[in-house]
Amino acid sequence: MPPPSLELADILRQHGAAYRHAHALPWHQWRLMRAIENCRTAALGGAVEWCDHCQNTRIVYRSCRDRNCPKCQGLARERWIQQETQKVMTVSAEEFIRRFLLHALPPGFPRIRYYGLMANCHCQVEALPPTAGRSADRPAARPTGYRDFYAAGKNLRRCPQCGIGTMIRIQILGPGQAPVAIRMDTS
Asked: What is the 3-state secondary structure of 8-58?
C-alpha cells in the first residue's frame, strides 16, 4: 500500500498550534498532539544506518510510541485498513482535530486489558520441551523485535535500496541533533 499523501502529523503540524491556542485542552490531549507532531522527526533524535553491501546511508528517527499515534501503531492500522471499505468524509481541520482528541484517554485511566481475568497473571501456559514442535535439522527460531518484521513480514533491517545488505547503526542522534559525516572504510 502506498504511503498516504497527507498524514495526521501533517495536519497537526499545520493547524495544531492554532487549535491549541483557540481551545483550552487538558494536559494529556496537548501532550498527545505534541507527541504526534514530533514523531519520527529530528526533534526526538534517531540514528544513522549504513548498508554493509551497497554503502547506502539513511537516517531513522525515533518514534513517540504513543498508543494513539498512527505511525507507531502501523500494524494495527494496516489490519484495520484491510477490513474497512474506502470511506471519504470531508471535515474542516479544526473538526478533524476535535474528533481525533475525543479518543485520547486521561493519564490516570486504567488499561482494562491488563486487569481482571484477561491479565497475564491468570494465563496458564505449559512450557514445551526445547525440541517439541520442530524437526531436529531446523534450529530454534530466535525471537525478533518490532524492527525486524513489520505488518507484511518485511525485514526492516534489510537495505531498502539494494535489498541484499543489512543496515548497521553507525551513529546515534540526540533530539534536534544533525548527523555528522562519517567516513566508512570499505576496504
From this structure: HHHHHHHHHHHHHHHCCCCHHHHHHHHHHHHCCCHHHCEEEEEECCCCCEE
The Cα 139–Cα 131 span in angstroms is 9
Split into its structural domains, the chain has a count of 1
pLDDT tens digits, 31-75: 999 999 999 999 999 999 999 999 889 898 998 888 888 888 776
Q: Please tell me the pTM assigned to this model.
A: 0.57
Name the one residue in this structure whose C-alpha cell is 512450557: 127
Q: Between the CA of residue 160 and those of 32, 67, 70, what are the distances in Å?
A: 31, 27, 22
Extract the C-alpha cell encoding 33: 498532539
Confidence of residue 102 (pLDDT cuts 50, 70, 90): confident
Q: Which domain, by its residues, includes 102?
A: 8-109+147-173
